[in-house]
Each structure stands twice: as C-alpha cells, then as structure tokens.
Amino acid sequence: TDYIARMKNAAQRMSNLINDLLEFSRVTTRGKDFVDTDLKQVLDEIVSDLEIAIKESNAQVSISDMPVIQADPSQMHQLFLNLLSNAVKFRRKDVAPIITVNYEHVHEFSDDHNTELDWQVITVKDNGIGFSQEYTDKIFVPFQRLHGRSQYKGTGIGLSVCRRIVERHGGTITAKGAADEGATFIIKLPVEAELFTLQGEA
Question: Which letter does DSSP use for residue 152 in this model?
Fold first, then answer.
C-alpha cells in the first residue's frame, strides 16, 4: 500500500505540473483583451478567496489605494493570487504573516524605450522566510525550487507565470529579499498599456 500511495502522489504531482505548464503557455495564447481593471477590486476578491488560509495563519493583509489600469482582469487576478498565496505559504514558523500591498505612480526615464515614461508601481511585501539575494533571478525561472517538496507544496511554476503575465502587459517584475527577513515583489506596469506579445510569439 505504501508503494501505491507513492505512485498516487507522483501521479498527482505530474497532473499538477501539466496543469501549471498549460497555465504558463496560455498566458499569451489564451489572454483576453485589455479593459479597465480596478486592482483594488481584484485584490479584495483575492483576500476573500484566501480567507481560510489567512485566518489559519493569522495573517494581516494591508492594501493601499490601487489604480484602475488597462489590463486582462483574469491575468491580474492570477498574478496577485500567486503573490499573496505565496506570502501566506512561505511564512516563518510561529510568525504571523504581515503582507502589505502598496502603489505609487512613477515618472522616470526608461533606458529600454529611450524616453520618459509613466509607470504604475505595485509592491507586495511580506515578513516571511524570504530568500537569499543570489537567487533573485532564479525564482522567476520555471522549476526553480529553493525548498524541498516535502517542506512546501508546489511545482515551481507560479512565479514564472507571474513574470509572463507582467511581460504581456509591457511591464517588469523584480524581487528583493533576504533569508528569514521576508520578500518584496515590485511590479512596474506602463500607464498606457497595450497588448504586448512576447519575443518569438505571434
């Protein structure tokens, strides 16, 4: 029976992985048109969806005023659901999660575009287990797990989906962290968002 249980677990992990890979590939192929999207409403819905996990972990979630942006609403939901559920999941032992979502409008020069641009900058900050700064680039790559599977469930696809969604919206996502000192994810979205296709894709 132990052998059968292990086979079932392996089959479930494979099923989860296939579903996550489909999610990853569909960011561009199944993406909807951009419409006015109220990020405060999106985040309030996510907090409601995560109500049980938030209560069980005694998490405090603080959300500042958020903008209405041009975006694919379902992908914005997916993006912030991944980030907030990670903030709850990767908490420190015996430390209640404190999660803060902030927003600011930034006007700055963009080297990539060689012009001044307006950005919507949203930060998601937590006080969880964090990560060493050397892993900053790796965490957005598919299958990069910084922890053992028995310790934290998941396939290692979530943050790569987040990056793909942000890039489809013409923005960037970066992270800052330190081991046992929490993580901060910084999302920069252009104010006048257009549909962006990723390189090499129609």
Answer: S
DSSP secondary structure letter of residue 192: S
| 198 band by pLDDT with thresholds 50, 70 and 90 | very low
Look at residue 128 and tell me whether its pLDDT is greater than 80: yes
Q: Which residue has the tokens 């999106």?
A: 42
Asked if residues 172 and 188 have their Cβ atoms less than 8 Å apart, the reply is: yes
CB atoms within 10 A of CB 99: 24
Per DSSP, the residues of 41-60 read: HHHHHHHHHTHHHHHHTT-E
pLDDT at 184 over 60: yes
Retrieve residue 113's tokens.
């575009």
pLDDT per position as a tens digit, 30-70? 678 889 999 999 999 999 999 999 999 999 999 999 999 99
What angle, 0 to 180 degrees and rounded to 10, lies between the N-to-C axes of helices 2-29 and 158-168?
A: 10
At residue 36, the 3 state secondary structure works out as strand
pTM: 0.77
CA dist., res. 102 & res. 79, Å (int): 15
